[in-house]
Amino acid sequence: MSLFEFADLESYADVMLWALRQTREKKFQNQDVVLVRYDIPGLALAEAVYSRLMEAHLVPVPMARPTPYMEMERYLNSSYGQLVAQPPGLAELYSRSAGVINILAPENLTHLQTVDPRTIAEARKADGPNRRILELRKQAGSLGWTTCVYPTEALAAASGMSMEDYAYALQRACWLNMPDPVKEWKRLGREVGEVCNWLDSLEIRSLRVESENINLKVPLGENRCFVGVSGTNIPGYEIYFAPDARNVNGTYYADQPTLRHGHWVVGASFDFFDGIAVRVEADKGQVFLQNQMYSDSGSRRVGEFSLTDKRFSRVDKFMAHTLLDENLGGDHGNCHIALGGSVLESFTGPVEMLTPELLYELGFNSSDMHWDLVNTEPKRVTAMLKTGKPVLIYENGTFKI
Hints:
By secondary structure, the protein is α+β, with helices and mostly antiparallel strands.
């Protein structure tokens, strides 16, 4: 039985189709292929999205993700050949896809905690060529891409809420309890866009982030812009950019719990020197966290910095999923860094021109990892402009536009 009323599912599907269109530079044409990738508990939303895609004269291709049982079989009961094998035809399907809608509805949050992370890394590495097909299509503007969350018992339990309360919190976060949710997201896009334009106009050289446990310098880098309400995630209130990963310096602390590969990490703390995390500690999950820092050559660098203004966000409590928690408004807003690969949407030129050499020259980080780590403490963010003038741009959860 669906947790949302039929009208809410329809509204959610409308928002996802709007978001998909937002993320694609080229307009969709009749019979364009759109993948609908979903976890089984999110089937009701997948069906609503399927219906909307059909009405838009697109060709939806539903793809259910493996269940927790299937994942455990793959990682613990397979030969190496089975682990790295790729489904036939997947590369062709990805090459022809014009859009991807991801519906995340985890049935279990910690089932992978007994799996060696190196096993997961091997499987992910084998899938790398297929993922790069999608990434290249995104960079060329040929692929729309958006992701959302559907409520499950596992998420509700981890956040300390009942299923009814969790479903309502998610409904509210996505503006589904409003008469016209798409209209609300368009309004938010305009309002957040004004903040992004203001930040771009300041010609910022670097940011200084200060809170009780953070003292971090984040350089903007050349050819960067601030991005907000891009449609990549629903909900997505944050304003973010890819810093020059080579020159991040100082201390960062994530006071919000984070989950990766079935492992909870709590109280993660980092010291950065010349862009590299030289000290990595955590109150819980420290060994796992430190091991992840050796995933690849870019895993110890910062690929994203983000701020959320509490006036825009309708996420007001911990919801046990990074896609939601990185948008927390609450009493003090939030900031987060992402360890690993850079978010290329903040590049001011055509993304398809970003060769590996240019990525390196501009300080964009390359990594197979992208791990968001959130801080919700009261904080001040001061911009150092190219003129040498400091400007307070963010304090106690709001931008000072």
